[in-house]
Write a structure and sequence with these properties.
Blueprint (H helix, E strand, L loop, with lengths): L6 E5 L4 E6 L5 E6 L2 H16 L13 H14 L5 H16 L9 H13 L4 H20 L24 H8 L4 H13 L3 H6 L5 E2 L4 E4 L10 E4 L2 H10 L17 H10 L4 E8 L2 E12 L5 H12 L4 H8 L4 H5 L6 H23 L4
Antiparallel strand pairs: 1-2, 2-3, 4-5, 5-6, 7-8
Length: 367
């Protein structure tokens, strides 16, 4: 008959130590700040031993910084595009705060304190949430590897991140009139397809099939790592044929790889799009007629939501729009808020017109 697994709790004055023996006869010790927490954890360990699940106090001595290395290794092995971003979140924020802490001792209250600190530093809600999501993933990764038995609750801040910017066809034309020819092609393509700038830059000529009249994004080349097919419209085909080289090298990129943030801002200003500017001052003297464009109200990513809006106005079904543009979930697609204020005003005008027509018909009836 197998020996019954037992354990005990030792009151050490400032902490409570649980002691138990694993299936191999090895004794383990863990310390907790309250008796209630110690009782709960002892019950968990004994339950794991009864089910044949490995239980070890080693899991509770692992540092958060060690787990961060494991998570980054997993990102690198799977070649996730967000690996550099996640590495920066660990290195700049999470590791300096939690790196030398045992994961078993990180509490929800400490995470709340971390959030307050980041808010005091001026970090945006979306930025903090991305860090919290990475922290949650770290805890889940530790549980899967039996390095953590119980993870603290990681809160998620309310995020008002509905996308708002739109381009009208006229604005796209005006903008392209101020951009260099190679960037015009990238901009037109983004407006016609709704693709992300990273996807556009990775596009190779071997993915453009003029015979089948379609463009293919391979699996792993998109943000959600799923491939997709975009049937070419006449306008899109004409754009690609206009930039097609005389001799196509299949492995070469369709579009130039130059950085154009400064060029984009200047073009937006010259095209009359909303921009924040400040005068140029040299040696204390304001340069008349010269300004520096600090920020534009229109970004390249606005072309993506503009594509969704135009497709919706044409009556294209939401499922088809999501497939063409690469939106994976309804919740993410809804954040793009493809209805603008002008659309709402147009809808109100249509309602007024129809109601006035019905009222005129009623008034004209004979009694």
């Amino acid at each position: 008959m197998p020996r019954k697994r037992t354990g005990n709790i030792q009151d050490r004055g400032t902490s409570f130590r649980i002691r138990y023996t694993d299936r191999n006869g090895l004794r383990h010790h863990e310390s907790y700040t309250t008796r209630e927490e110690a009782e709960d954890q002892l019950a968990i360990r004994l339950g794991q031993l009864a089910r044949g699940v490995p239980a070890s106090s080693r899991a509770n001595t692992v540092l958060f910084g060690e787990l961060a290395d494991d998570v980054l290794t997993d990102y690198e092995i799977n070649n996730y595009a967000s690996t550099p971003d996640q590495e920066a979140r660990f290195r700049l924020h999470l590791i300096p705060y939690f790196g030398n802490r045992r994961i078993s001792q990180i509490t929800s209250a400490e995470i709340q304190t971390y959030i307050k600190g980041r808010q005091a530093e001026g970090a945006k809600t979306g930025t903090i949430n991305r860090e919290l999501e990475l922290m949650h993933r770290t805890f889940e990764f530790a549980k899967q590897g039996d390095k953590l038995f119980h993870a603290p609750h990681v809160p998620h801040l309310r995020e008002d991140n509905v996308r708002e910017g739109f381009f009208t066809p006229d604005e796209v034309d005006r903008l392209c009139g101020q951009l260099p020819k190679d960037i015009v092609a990238v901009t037109r393509f983004g407006y016609m397809t709704g693709w992300r700038i990273g996807e556009i830059r990775k596009l190779l000529w071997e993915q453009v099939d003029f015979a089948a009249n379609e463009i293919r994004l391979w699996v792993g080349r998109t943000k959600n790592r799923e491939g997709r097919v975009f049937p070419m419209t006449d306008e899109l085909r004409g754009l690609l044929e206009s930039i097609k080289p005389a001799r196509i090298i299949p492995s070469s990129h369709v579009f130039t790889q130059s950085e154009f943030r400064k060029t984009w801002k200047t073009a937006c200003y010259k095209a009359g799009l909303p921009c924040t500017v400040r005068p140029i001052v040299i040696r204390g003297h304001v340069q008349q007629g010269k300004v520096k464009v600090v920020k534009c109200a229109r970004t390249f990513h606005d072309l993506r939501r503009s594509f969704a809006r135009e497709m919706d106005k044409m009556g294209v079904r939401q499922g088809a729009i999501m497939k063409l543009g690469g939106w994976k979930t309804d919740s993410v697609f809804r954040r793009y808020n493809i209805v603008s204020e002008n659309d709402l005003r147009d809808a109100a005008a249509q309602i007024n017109a129809k109601r006035s027509t019905k009222g005129a018909r009623r008034g004209g009836r004979k009694r």
